[in-house]
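Sample 3 of the quickstart, ligand S-adenosylmethionine:
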Amino acid sequence: MTDSPAARTASSSTPGAPATDRAAADQALKAKHRAMWASGDYPTLATDLIWSLGDTLVDAVGVEPGDRVLDVAAGSGNAAIPAALRGGAVVASDLTPELFEVGRRRAADAGADLEWREADAESLPFDDAEFDVVVSCVGVMFAPHHREAAGELLRVTRPGGRIGLLSWTPDGFIGQMFRAMKPYAAPLPSGAEPAPLWGDEQHVRELLGDGVDDLTARRESIVIDRFDSPEAFRDYFKQNYGPTIAVYGRIADDGEQVRALDDALVELARSHGLGSPGDAMRWEYLLVTARRS
Ligand SMILES: C[S@@+](CC[C@H](N)C(=O)[O-])C[C@H]1O[C@@H](n2cnc3c(N)ncnc32)[C@H](O)[C@@H]1O
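Result:
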C-alpha cells in the first residue's frame, strides 16, 4: 500500500522518526503556520497591496467558462474570485480558514460564487486529475515541503490542464525581506525549504519536472505606492503580516534585536526607493505557467 500524501510529507520532514511521531510533528508545524497566517490582518494587506496579482495570474493561465479551477493557498481569494468571475467552477483552498470570512464577503460583493475548503497544500483533499486549472498566488510557496506540494499540484491537475504559479523571487523585495528577518526567525524545521525558492525558475522547473510541458516563466513586478515612508512600511508589516509578527514575537524581550530588525526593515524599504511621500517600490515576482503532461 502506498503512503497517503500526509504520511509522505511527515516522512520527508523528519527522516528516521516513527511514522506516528512524524505525522504529529507535521500537524504541529501546520497548526503553527495556520496560527501565524491568522494573526495580524492578512486579508487587509492582500486587499491594500496585492489584490491585482490575482487577476494577473488568472489572465496568464487562462480560465474559460466551465473550467474546474483550484486555487491553492488562496487566502481571501484574490485569484479565486477573478477566476470565478470568468466563469470557472472554483474551489478556494487554504490551510487557514480564518481568512475565508473576508474572502466570502469579497466574493459576495463581487457577485462571485465559489467553494471554500480548508486544505494543506501538501495533502490536498481532492481526487487525482480533478481540476482543469490549478493556480497559486504567492501561496503554495509557503508550504514548507516543496516536493510534496509540487507533487500535489501535479496530482490534482488533469492531463492537458494548466498550472499557474506566482511567487516572490529570492532577490526581489519580499525575498529580501525574508532574508532580513532570517537572523531573528526560528530555524527552518528539518526537511523544510525557504519559501522564496519558488521564485527561482530553475527550482520550479525541477519541482514540476516532466510532470509538465510548455513551462513559461517570466519575472515581473508590482508597484507598491501605499507607504509614505520606510517606517510606515515597517509598521504596517509589524501590525498585519503574520510572518513578520511571528519574528517580532520571538525577539520581543530583546530590545536590541527589535531595534536591529526595525532598522533592517527600514533600510530595506529605503534601498528599494521608499524615501518620502509619493515614492513607490517594485516587488518582483516570478510568473510560471505550464501544461500538465
Ligand atoms: C501570502 S499568503 C497568499 C494568499 C493569497 N493567495 C494572496 O495572494 O493573497 C500565503 C497563504 O498561504 C497559506 N498557506 C501557508 N502554508 C500552507 C499550506 N501548507 N497549505 C495551504 N496553504 C498554506 C496561508 O494560510 C496564506 O493564506
